[in-house]
Amino acid sequence: MASLNLSHIYKVYPNGKKAVNDFSMEIADKEFIVFVGPSGCGKSTTLRMIAGLEDITAGELRIGDVVVNDVEPKDRDIAMVFQNYALYPHMTVYENMAFGLRLRKLPKEEIDRKVREAAEILGITEYLDKKPKEMSGGQRQRVALGRAIVRSPKVMLLDEPLSNLDAKLRNAMRSEISKLHHKLQTTFIYVTHDQVEAMTMGTRIVVMRDGYVQQIDTPRNLYQYPGNKFVAGFIGTPQMNFFEGKLVQEGDVVHITFDNTSVQLDAPVSLFNKTSRAYLDGSKKVIIGLRAEHLSVNPDAHPYRAKCRVSHVEELGTDCQVYADFNTESEDIVGESPTTVIIKAPAGSTYDVDQIIEVSLDLNHLHIFDAETEESIAPRIPSEVVVDGVVKGGKLQLLGNTIVLPEAIAAEDGEYDVAIPTSAVSLGEDIAAKVVEEENVNGQRLLQLQVGDRVLFSIVGDDEQVGASVKINIDLKQIKLSREGEVMQQPLNLVNTLEARISKHKVVVEKEINGKVKKVPDLAFTLDVADAVFDCSRRIALRLVNGGGQNIFDKKLNLQFSPYQITVGEEGISATVEKVLDYGKEAFAVCHVGEQVVNVSVEKGFDAAEIKLSVDPEVMAIIEVDRNIRLA
Ligand code: ADP
Questions:
Q1: What's the CA angle centered on 401, arms 399 and 404, to 5 degrees?
Q2: What pLDDT score was predicted for residue 473?
Q3: Which of 141, 322, 381, 611 has the maximal Cβ count within 10 Å?
Q4: What's the pLDDT score for residue 334?
Q5: pLDDT tens per residue across span 346-359
Q6: 147 CB under 6 A from ligand 1?
Q7: Do you find a cis peptide bond into 161, omega within 30 degrees of 0?
Q8: Atom in ligand 1 nearest the alpha carbon of residue 42
Q9: How would you classify the pairing of strands 557-561 and 587-593?
Q10: Which of 13, 57, 205, 207 to mutate to test the pocket of ligand 1 (most atoms within 8 A of CB)?
Q11: What CATH code is carried by the domain that includes residue 12?
C-alpha cells in the first residue's frame, strides 16, 4: 500500500527521443490508475520508470515519502505484470509463484502459505502442479498475477496484461483484475491502449498523446468534460461526432452554424456561461462535438432539430447506429467528411439510403473546441472572463462598480474589454457578488459569482465560509485591458526568466576520517546568473547533472521564478530599475538585467535606480533550454 508522487518527470532516450514530457501527478494509496493512449504515446515508458526498469531523465518520483529515482527496482516494493506473462516454462505453477520468494530467502512455510493464498484468490489452486504450457492464456496470466501478488507489493504495475487474450477472455479477466484490486487494497497502475479497458477499470485515467499528458480524470469526467478534442475523440464509442462551425451571439441567443450544411441552432446564451466571449462573435472557427447518444432520430426528443441524409444503418442488437450527413446536398457520403454524423437509434430502426430525416440534438451535452488549439472553449475552470469596462478619470467602471485604478494602470479614458482571470478573483471586501453556484472540480471549490449582469469565477479554499452573498476582490495586476482586439494594458508578468549556467569548482573540505579531521579535495557547484554567482546545493547540482548529462556545464539554463522569489539585497545580480509599478496594495520593480527584464516584488515607496538581486536555486524551476526539459 502506497501513494506515489510524480513531479515533472521526463524521459529522453539515448537516441534523443523525448518519450515523456513533464508528467506530474499524485496517486493516492489504493487507487486504480490507468495510463491510456495510442501506441507510442509514452505509457509503457512511464510505467517502466516507476518500476525502475528505465532511468528517469529528469523529475522526481516518490513512493510513499521516499524519493526512489536511484532506488533499485527490487528495492521499490513494486511488482510488475507483463503482456507476455514471462513465466519460466520448465517450472510448475507453484514453483513459478514461489521463485521470487525463495530468492528472498523467505521461510519455506511462509512461501507455501503465500503461494496457496494467492492461488486461492486467483482460482488456480488445482493447477499448482501443472507447467505453464499445459494452461490456457487466461490461466497463464493468472499465474503471472499470482507471482506478483505473493510479494505483497506496495504498488502493482500492469503493462497491457490482457492484450494476448481473445475478446471474451479479456472481458472476464478485466473484471477479475478489478476484483483483485478490491481484495488486495493495493495501488494499481495499469497500461492499455484500449479506452474501454481504461473506462471500465480505472478509478482515474491518464490520457496521453505523443509523450504529453492530455487529461487526468475519472472515467465519468473524461466522458462528460473532455478538456480537448483529442480526449473527446479518444474516449467513447462510437467516436464523438465533430463538425466545423461558428458561434454568433445575438442578445440572449447564440446561433450555432455547422459549415457546409444548413444546420442552424439557436441556443440560449446560458449554455455558454463558461465560454470566452472571443468565441461568440463568429470571428473564430470552432469544432462542435456531439456524441451519437446525444442525437435522436425522434425529432421531438430534444428541442433542437436538424435535417440529415441517411447513408447506412448498422444494427448492433441492443440498438443501432445511423450513419448520415448533415450536408443533405452532398454527392459523396461514403467515407469521412466533416459533415457526417452517427446517431444512436432504437434497435430495428430502418431507413432507405439517401432518405432525408429530421433528428433532434441534446445541446446540454455539446462540446466545443478551438479549431486551432483543439482545447475546449468552455473548460471546467475558465481561465478568464472578459467584461465591458469604462475608464474615466483614473477610475474603472466595471459591472456596476467603480474601482479606483492604481498608479500602475495608466489607461486613458474610454471603453475597454477587461479580461479578468479566475486566479484574480478572491473573497475580500471590495465588490458585492451573489454566489449562483458552487462546483467541486476535481477537489477545487469553484464559485460562480454574479456581479452586475455577468458571472465571474473564483477558486476558494476548503475552509472558507461562503454564504449566498459575498464580497470579492479583483487583483488588478492580473487584469488585461483591450480595445478592438488591441491590448492597451498588459497584466503584470508573474513568471520571470533569467539565463544561467552551472559551474563546478575544486575545493578542499575538512572531513573526519577515522576520528581525525583531514583536508580532502571535493567539488562545489554554483549557479552563475549574469554577473553574480549563487551557491547551488549538491541535491540541485545532482539533478542538473543527472538530467542534463556531463556536458550540462556547457548548456544554457533558464531559471523561472515569480516576483516574490527574487529579493533585493546588498549583493547579487546587478540590475537597473526601469520603473516601479504601484498596484496600491503591492508594488513591483521592473528591472533590466542586461537584455532581460524581471519583475521584483518590492516595498511600497521603493525608490532606487541600481540594485542587486538574489535568487534561491532551491525554490525555482531550472530548465535546460535546448531540449526544453525542466531539470529541477
Ligand atoms: P506506448 O507504451 O505508449 O506504446 P512507449 O512508452 O513504449 O509507448 O514509447 C514511447 C516512445 O518512445 C515511442 O515513440 C517509442 O518509439 C520510443 N521508445 C521506446 N523505447 C525506446 C528506446 N529504448 N529507445 C528509443 N526510443 C524508444
A1: 125
A2: 96
A3: 141
A4: 53
A5: 999 999 999 999 99
A6: no
A7: no
A8: 6
A9: unpaired
A10: 13
A11: 3.40.50.300
**The three cell numbers locating residue 157:** 504495475
Decide: 192 in ligand 1 pocket, CB within 6 A.
no
Ligand 1 centroid vs 18 CA: distance in angstroms? 9
The verdict on residue 380 lying in a domain is no
pLDDT bucket at 332, cuts 50 / 70 / 90? low
45: Cβ below 6 Å to ligand 1?
A: yes
The SS3 assignment for 236 reads coil
Pocket lining: 157 vs ligand 1, CB cutoff 6 Å: no
* E runs forming strands in 210-303: 212-217, 241-250, 253-258, 264-268, 286-290, 295-296
Question: How confident is the model over 329-339, as a mean pLDDT?
Answer: 67
Which ligand 1 atom is the nearest neighbour of the CA of 160?
2
Residue 39 Cβ inside 6 Å of ligand 1? The answer reads yes
Q: Which of 232, 252, 278 is a domain's end point? A: 232
Cα of 371 vs centre of ligand 1, distance in Å, is 29
Statement to judge: residues 225 and 240 lie in one domain: no
pLDDT tens by residue, 403-435: 999 999 999 999 999 999 999 999 999 999 999
Q: Give the model confidence (pLDDT) of 124-134 as tens digits.
A: 899 999 999 88
pLDDT value, residue 335: 55
CATH assignment at residue 343? 2.40.50.140
Cα separation, 270 vs 102, in Å, equals 65
SS3 (DSSP) at 98: helix
Whether residue 289 sits in one domain with residue 412 = no
480 and 394, same domain (yes or no): yes
Average pLDDT, the chain: 94
- pLDDT at position 331: 65
Query: Range of 424's domain?
Result: 385-489
Q: 270 in ligand 1 pocket by Cβ < 6 Å? A: no
The answer for residues whose C-beta is within 8 angstroms of residue 614's C-beta and 6 or more apart is: 532, 534, 566, 567, 568, 569, 571, 572, 573
Amino acid type, 68: V
Is residue 378 in a domain? no
Q: Is residue 376 included in any domain, yes or no?
A: no
Percent of the chain residues topping a pLDDT of 90:
84
Q: Do both 357 and 282 map to the same domain?
A: yes
pLDDT at 531 over 60: yes
Greatest extent of the chain over all pairs of C-alpha atoms, in Å: 96
Cβ-contact 323, 309 below 8 angstroms = no
Q: Looking at the structure, tell me whether residues 449 and 476 fall in a common domain.
A: yes
